Amino acid sequence: MNNTINKETYILDDSIAFELMDLLKAKARHFIKLNAYVYRLFDGETVVTFTTLEHEIQVEKISGGVA
User: Fold this and answer.
1) Does residue 21 sit in helix, strand or coil?
2) Residue 23 CA: distances (Å) to CA of 3, 5, 35, 63, 67
3) How many Å apart are CA 29 and CA 62, to the nearest integer?
4) DSSP H or E segment with residue 15
5) Quick one: DSSP state of residue 55?
6) For the chain, how big is the Rg over CA atoms in Å?
7) Is 36 exposed, middle or buried (0-12, 13-18, 19+ CB in 10 A)?
8) Taking a C-beta distance cutoff of 8 angstroms, is the pair 59, 2 a contact?
9) Are 56 and 46 contacting, i.e. CB atoms less than 8 angstroms apart?
10) Spatial strand order in the sheet of 46-52
11) What is the pLDDT along the chain (67 residues), one digit of tens a residue?
12) CB within 8 A of 36, min separation 6: which ones?
């Protein structure tokens, strides 16, 4: 049995990132504001972290599973 972890990172315009965050919040089990710049969503299988940069937002998706 192999555990696999997939990590993807994107840099998005802030308006697009906030639209994505709103869509994902509807499916998330947990929505956590870590500080003024970092938000994290968790749906049971995937963690998505939104980090505010100077003019964009970094979106990092980490999903794991058993292969």
Assistant:
1) helix
2) 28, 23, 21, 17, 28
3) 15
4) helix 14-25
5) S
6) 13
7) exposed
8) no
9) no
10) 3-13, 56-66, 46-52, 38-42, 30-33
11) 567 889 999 999 999 999 999 999 999 999 999 999 999 999 989 999 999 999 899 999 999 865 4
12) 52
- Encoded amino acid at 67, one letter: A
Residue 27: both structure tokens together: 């499916």
Question: Residue 50: what residue type?
Answer: F
Residue 2: other Cβ atoms inside 10 A: 6
Query: Side chain identity at 46, as an amino acid letter?
Result: T
Q: Tokens at residue 54, please? A: 């100077």
The amino acid that residue 64 corresponds to is G
